[in-house]
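Recap slide: Peptidase M50B-like protein, sequence and predicted structure.
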Amino acid sequence: MRPNWELKNCCHHEQVVFLITISVCTVVILALWRTVLLKPFKLVTVFLHEASHAIACKLTCGHVEGIQVHVDEGGSTQTRGGIYWFILPAGWHTTNMLFILASTNLLTARIAAGCLLVALVIVLFVAKNWTLRGLCIGFIVFLGVVWLLQETTKFCPFFKPAGVMNSLFSVYDFFDNSPDIYDDLISRRIHTGDAEKFAEVSLLQWGLISLLFLSGAMYPGLVILS
């Protein structure tokens, strides 16, 4: 069957549910952003951010020297070699698309859950601090519960929120006057964030890229569901 790239006869029930779910996730995440309820999910988003840097480094023949995630929602990935302009933007923009696309059906959700589980186990043994180790253990258990729920209900309850969270983490920083966007690109008070480094090798605005990637993930998601 040919992909329905023109999205003719959009939108049927599954596509409407897909759009509504992402919209609801966006509103709920922004509403609860400063609450303790989102703390572990924000930390795992930082983990995914740093893991994406590490994967991009490996894909470009670099060497990953260490990964850290901190309680204050900061993180760092020490790399050597690789392609600089490919490693830096990988942090925010790859996992959000992959997670949103993974949420479109049960098979892709299973594959994504399996890949995330393997990543958590690997990072558990190479983590440089106990915050990251505890995060890995907690989310291995959490992912097991999600997998069980997914298999019994045939519904993918995790990857849409995870994809939206990863996208909003950088965009929210822009409006919240927080480091990665506002401080790096506008106020210039912080000079070591990913956004400033990426700005040095690209003229594209960081926040705009995040929104485009989120929108770009929704379009192929609708095509898959069609």
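The first helix runs from residue 13 to 31.
The two ends are 11 Å apart (CA to CA).
(End of recap.)
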